[in-house]
Amino acid sequence: MNKVALITGATAGFGKAIAEVFAKNNYNLIITGRRAERLSEIKLDLESKHSIDILTLSFDVRNLEEVKRSLEGLTDEWKNIDVLINNAGLASGLSHIQDGDIEDWDKMIDTNVKGLLYVSKAIIPLMVQRKKGQIINIGSTAGKEVYENGNVYCASKHAVDAITKGMRIDLLGTGIKVTQIAPGAAETEFSIVRFHGDEAKAKAAYNGYEPMTANDIAEQVYYVTTLPPNLCINDMVITSLSQANSFYIDRKS
Ligand code: NDP
Ligand code: 8X3
Prior knowledge:
Elements: E1 4-7, H1 13-24, E2 28-33, H2 36-49, E3 54-58, H3 64-71, H4 76-79, E4 83-86, H5 102-130, E5 133-138, H6 151-170, E6 176-183, H7 190-194, H8 199-204, H9 214-223, E7 235-238
Parallel strand pairs: 1-2, 1-4, 2-3, 4-5, 5-6, 6-7
Helix pairs in contact: 1-2, 1-9, 3-5, 5-6
């Protein structure tokens, strides 16, 4: 029987690539995101290529009632989730704290921190009951170092770092693995969203060096699920060769 993975934010970027890699490895998938049409397209595409089933659930992770309605009623076929990938997230705006936009701050904290918690709260009890499972939280190098203008986004990813450590500690003895993957820069829709749709600014973020791709991250997310049962990767910081951390990038131009 196929294992089951639930991926939040599967309509684009890392989440979509993670869905592709897990599908290739015969996982049945629950894919989520706000853009229902994209979820349907991905389901159609991946089910036609692989012997798997996909359940699409369209909801906003910021809305507790939507999260509960979508995840608390999972049927027996879907509730035995082996891997939960908390990936949905965003940066919104890039400015000094004194110029920050409160709507941007709310969006980042509500999505990256509270959304991750709402989804986890719905799924962890199911894993505890089965005494197995793996939670993979997508953090960031922004959760390791704070950079100029990154203030609230960095805070939200430092929260993901702390929540992941807390989950790992509190779930000791339950059989559940907890892993954070903390990527550096990767070219997805991330920068377009950060710059509120300004594609030129988004492109410029990757000037002079080669960022990672979504597939680079997806392969590592899958890798951390393939360790022997007694091993757990707690934290993986991963960047392209040209990036050492949030501050140092070897830009050729
Ligand atoms: P994308 O913008 O390409 O994808 C983001 C995904 O998150 C989309 O599927 C989007 O779906 C989903 N999402 C955003 N807000 C919500 C919401 N309120 N409810 C439900 N789903 C939501 O970005 P990435 O793939 O790059 O980002 C994925 C994660 O990786 C994020 O947590 C990001 O912070 C993190 N990250 C990204 C890095 C990068 O350089 N790209 C580096 C380090 C970390 P939809 O819009 O359909 O709801
Ligand atoms: C995304 C990477 O460097 O833009 O989390 O913060 S960065």
